[in-house]
Structure formats: C-alpha cells, structure tokens
Amino acid sequence: MNSIPFKIFLVAILFSKNAFSQQPRLVIDVEPGNRSSSPTELTVSGNFMYFSADDGQYGKELWRSDGTDAGTVIVKDICGGRCASNPGNFIDFKGVLFFTAYEGEHGIELWKSDGTAEGTKMVKDINGGASNHSPKQLTVINNTLYFYIDKTLWTSDGTEQGTVVSKTAQVLSGKHKYNEIHLNSQLVFAGSDLHSGHELWKAGEKKGSKIMVKDIYPGKSSSNPEYLTLFKGLVFFSADDGTNGRELWKYDGINATLFKNIHTKGVGSHPSQLAAYNQQLFFVTRTEETNLLWVTSPQGKSTAFKDIFQGFGEMEITGLTTVQQTIYFFSNKGTEAGKNDSTILWKTDGTTEGTFKLKTFQHQSNATLLQHLVNINGTLFFNASNGVSGTELWKSDGTTKGTVMVRDIFTGNESSEPQFLTNVNGTLFFSANDGRDGNELWKSDGTAKGTVMVKDILPKAIGSFPDNLVSMNNLLYFACNDGEHGHELWKSDGTTSGTMMVKDISNGEEAGDPDDLVNVGGVLYFTANDGKTGVELWKSNGTEQGTVLVKDIMEKKGSDGSNPSELTAVNGRLFFVANNGSDGDEIWCSDGTSKGTYMVKDIKKGPQNSHIKSFTVVRDRVYFTADNGKDGVELWWADNHGKNAEMIIGNYSLSNETPPMYLTVINGVLFFAIDSRDTGVELWKVE
Q1: Distance between CA 51 and CA 371 in Å, rounded?
Q2: Which of 289, 286, 203, 212 is nearest to 248 (CA)?
Q3: pLDDT, tens only, 635-681
Q4: Considering the entire predicted model, what is its pTM?
Q5: DSSP β-bridge partners for residue 495
Q6: Nearest-angstrom CA–CA distance, 194 and 566
Q7: Is 168 helix (H, G, I), strand (E, B) or coil?
Q8: Selected residue with higher pLDDT from 665 and 562
Q9: Does residue 490 carry a pLDDT above 60?
C-alpha cells in the first residue's frame, strides 16, 4: 500500500495581512511524487518560515520558505550528501533560528541560521568530538537561550563565548546543602586528602596550608559534612561517623564533636535544612515514621517541637525569613507517590505552642510556588499558586486571615508569574504578566489598588521582560526591551514618567544586554555590549553621561568581548572574571576607572582558562577556587586591593576535578571540604 505523500501546506496568515480570506495552498513539493519529504519543526524566525525536510537527495536538512515556490529552498546541506543532519529543536532567538543538528564530525550540537548558507553555522562544539550528548529543550527566557545537556543547564547569548554552563544551574546543583557561611576571617568547608575521605576542613586568614579539622568517619570512608551553619559562634553540621549514622555535629574552632545523637539505634536522624534565626537553630530530622522540626535554644538545648509534615517521602522546609521576632517558612507536603500536591506557609517563635499553619496552597502539578519571601516593613511578600488563580503575588501579616493574595494580576487560572521581587525604600517592585500587556514592570504597596503596572514599556506586545532588578540610591535599576532600542539599562522611581531608559548602549534595535547588575558603594556595575567592543564591563551613576564603558579588556578588536562574569563587591571594589584574549578567563578587579581595572594574576599561563569560581570574602581577602594547569582545582586567595593572588598549598591530592566545597568562615578560620584520592570527601581548614 502506498503511503500518502506529505507535502508542505502553509496557511497564508504567516505572510499576508488578508490571511483569513485565503485558502491553504501547496507551497512546494519538496520530494516530487508520492514520496514524503516529512517536513517538521515549522518555525517562523526573522523573515522566513524554517522547517526540516528530506528532498530525497540531501537527506533531512534545514529548509526555509517565504511562502512562494521559488522562495522555498534548502538553506544548507549541513551533513554533506545523503547524510542527514536531522535539524531539530527549532526556536527563534533574537530574529535568528537556533536548532540542533549533526554535521558528521562533532555529534549533535547547537547551531544557528540567518537563512543563508554562510550564516548557518555551529554555535559551539560543546561536547567535543562525536558525542551523543545533545542539547535539548531549547527555551528563550528574558533574552537568554536555555537548554539542557544530560542533567546540566546551559545558557547562550548566541555566541561561542557566551554559550556556557548556567550559573543558576551551578547554584541549584548544590541543592540545600549550603556552599558557604562567613564569620570574621575564617572559611570552613568540606574537603578530602589522600588518607581520610570527605571530611571537615578549614582555611584561615594567614598564608598556610589547609587543615583537616577531624577525620569523623575514620579511614578512607567519608563523613560527608553537610548543611554547615553558623550558630552562637559554632559551626553546626550534619555528618556520619560510621557508628551513629548521620547526626548533628558542632565545631568550636578547635574540636568537632557529636552534638546530639537523636536516633540512638545507629541509623541516624538525618538532620537537614539547618537555619539559624533569632538566636535559635532550626533543623529537620527524618525517620521512617516522622519528619520533625527541631529547635536548639541559645543555651544549647534541642527540642523536637512540631511534626509539621505528617506525610510520606522526603519533605522540605524552604524560604525561612525573619519578620521582627517571627520566623516564616514553607513546607512541602507530598503524597504517597512522592508528588508535591500542597505547600504550607508557617510561622513560629520556636515553640510548639507558637508554631502555626497560616495557609495551605493546593496546587496542580504544573503550578508553581516560587517560595521566595521578601520582608517589607513587617509584611511578608511572596509568589504562590493556589491551583485556582495561578501563580500570583501574596502577602502575610502573620495571621491566617491576613495571609491573602494581593491581587489576581492575570485574572482566572492563568499565572502572572511575579519575579525578581525587590524592595526599594518600602515599595515592592517586580515583573509580571497581566495577560494583556505582556511581562512588564509592576509595583505594590500591599493593597490590590496599589498593585499596579508602573509602565507599559513595550505596548501591545508580549512585554518588555524586565530583569536584573537592583535597588541603588533610592531608585530601581533593571534591564528591559522597549521594542525600539533592544534590551537596555533602565531606571524607575515608581512613576510612569520617572521610568526611563538610562542609556541606549547599543544604538538602535541591537541590544546592549545589561547583565549581572551589582551595586558597589552607590555605583552600578554590569556587563553590556555596545556593538563595538563586545561584552565588557560598564558602570553607571544613573545618568546617560555617567553610564560608560569601564575598560575595553579584550585586546582582539572585533571580537565578542572579554565577557566579564562572577561580578562581586568586595570592600568598595569589584572583583570579576574576564578574558583579555591572550590570558584566558582570569581574576580581575576594578575601582571604576580604566587604569584601575586590571588582571590580578594570570593563574593559568597562556590563553587557557583557570576556571575561577566561588568568590568568598574573608576580612581583607577574597578566597576562590581556580586551576593553574599544574595542580588542578585548588583553593586560592587575593587581597582586597587586587595586588596579588596565591594558591593555598594543601597536603592532599584531589580524586577528581571537584574543587574545594562549602567554603565557610568561622572566627577567622576558613573551613572547606575536599574530595581526595585517599580520604574521599572530608572537612579541612586553613589557619
């Protein structure tokens, strides 16, 4: 039996103002006869409609159409001859088509096309060689392209240099086990050496080697310290000593000891989600029967005061926030199948009698509860979905009656998805979508009447998508796209007339793409692309004249820029990572002047990257991890003036490329975790 031929039909709505008066028609028979070209992935981008098809000569390749027979052509034979590149995952991003394809050598990679053969090219060889790990789930959010490779989230600005592992993904990969805490001049973290497994370590203010605090699980087994939390001058954490199971431990700067053996049968109570609030330490324990919330008083007494979960599976407390003398938090209550079907807002004063359920949010599987709490003058604001009104803005005054939705911005069961909740002098600013004007800038005083759109920046469209909201000098700074100037830097005093573009950094419709906005002593630092220098470091005092390029770091002109990242404020200076074109990604610092913006040290000599991460401030030093090309990923420090950077020498050998973890500062000592070949993951310190 012959198969019915699959031809391309286009509804003229794509290309004609009089679409509804026309009938669908065959544009082109890509593979003539009764054989099918199997067109898929029909996607409009720029001036063309793109699709994937097989014409019987080139295999499945990328095609485009302007709605006419003559204008429907193959864009490029990506995998030469009958080898099919199988383009997929089509998506429009900044007027350019992005997709995945196979060209016969590099495996399935991320590609882009402007509709010409010359402009159709691989964005980046992410996997290296003919790997089978292909990009999936291409999604555009706030002027950034996101996609997954295996379980890793990536982002892209459309350039090779700008296609990187997502910083959000790196943060999320740590889950709730806490990467760092600070106190005075010490850093505490989990690490390992050649003998002891994954244990507790510390590193300190002075030069010196990293020191393991204690081999809690003796030998090469690991105690795996987690949830390092500062409370009353001590470090509390969860660890397994091999005898009592995973229980609560403490470190006083000299000795690490078992604080409380809660489950005495040796299987452990699995303390987690440690949080210190109002002179009390809160944590959750989990057994086969119960999930208990505990509190440790300032005197050191621990009491289980509430079984708040009463369900199955691993439950979790999130979003602990202090409002005056009351602590608020969310708990996720699951079903027997382990699915979160409700989220509960609680408040507590640390006693059983003072712990109350304020509101239960019954939400559908596709609904979201962002679990982000913002305290503004004693009122708690957050995003929540109750399964009826979608994800909207809520508030709480600490009473059940006073825990209410502020306003159903996108009326009905759709979600306005409030994001980037930011406090500017007692006014809440955020982005939201009301279903009419798209994603725009909003503000709220906590009342329905006072929750209003500040300005319809991109009228009658999908919205300007404000992001990177930052408070500075009593104004809100953010980035958005007004449809005329591209994604640029804006500011707002909360009024329509006072909401304006600060500067069109990249003149015209091209986007300056301000990102990583950081307030450093009343000066706004960020990265942007002016269309000439590529992505570089900029600063602004809030005026057009005062919004300037700090320095053109990239030495190679006509490139994509130095791509600064990891922008971090340190005692009035800015530390960041940048690439000048000859030394790779290295540590830089800036005082806001071109002369005062310089590379601190070329850690990995030559054009290769030193993979700097985890800037952690300890008094007058900045600690971070880096790879110098000889010793692997190690712990480094730089003084806060950016005059020098040195590696801290440790008597261990890493078992893999995992860097020092959980950098934590306690009383001038740096603690961290290391995974070494001999000991696994253990706790170390630097004195």
Answers
A1: 40
A2: 286
A3: 888 887 888 888 876 545 444 445 666 565 555 556 566 666 555 55
A4: 0.56
A5: none
A6: 31
A7: helix
A8: 562
A9: yes
Tell me the C-alpha distance between 238 and 682, whole Å: 12
CA distance 249 to 27: 71
Nearest CA to 433 among 420, 446, 422, 418? 418
Q: Taking a C-beta distance cutoff of 8 angstroms, is the pair 432, 418 a contact? A: yes
Give me the pLDDT at residue 118, please: 93
For 484-506, letters b (16+ CB in 10 Å) and e give ebbbbbbbbebeeeebebbbbbb
User: What is the average pLDDT score of the chain?
Assistant: 76
Residue 549: per-residue pLDDT: 95
Contacts of 157 (CB under 8 A, 6+ apart): 144, 145, 163, 513, 535
Query: Cβ–Cβ contacts within 10 Å for residue 651, how many?
Result: 13
Instruction: Tell which wins on pLDDT, 243 or 338.
Output: 243
Contact 430, 422 (CB under 8 A): yes
Six token digits for residue 90: 């089509």
Q: List the beta bridge partners of residue 684.
A: 189, 672
Cα angle 30, 34, 39 (rounded to 5 degrees) comes to: 40
Q: Is 184 helix (H, G, I), strand (E, B) or coil?
A: coil
Burial class of residue 96 in the structure, from the number of CB atoms within 10 Å of its CB (0-12 exposed, 13-18 middle, 19+ buried): middle
User: Within 13 Å of residue 3, how many CA atoms lie on the same side as its CB?
Assistant: 7
Token pair recorded at residue 480:
């958005």
Instruction: Say how far apart CA 580 and CA 609 lie, in whole Å.
Output: 11
Which stretch of 48-62, 185-199, 590-604 has the lowest confidence by average pLDDT?
185-199
Q: Which candidate, 246, 250, 208, 207, places its Cα nearest to that of 231?
A: 250
Contact between residue 227 and residue 177 where contact means Cβ atoms under 8 Å apart: yes
Lookup: tokens for 432: 């939201």
Alpha-carbon distance of 599 to 287, in angstroms, equals: 51
The DSSP line for 321-339 is EEETTEEEEEEEEE-TTS-
Residue 240 CA to chain centroid, in angstroms?
30
Q: What pLDDT score was predicted for residue 576? A: 94
Contact 189, 182 (CB under 8 A): no
613 within 8 A of 625, measured Cβ to Cβ: yes
Q: What is the pLDDT of residues 368-427, one digit of tens each?
A: 444 467 888 888 888 887 778 888 999 888 888 888 999 999 988 888 889 999 999 999
pLDDT of residue 214: 86
Question: b/e per residue, 530-552, with b = 16+ CB within 10 A?
Answer: beebbbbbbbbebeeeebebbbb
pLDDT of residue 166: 56
Residue 616's nearest CA partner among 228, 74, 112 is 228
Token pair, residue 75, equals: 């864009």
CA 342 to CA 315: how far, in whole Å? 11
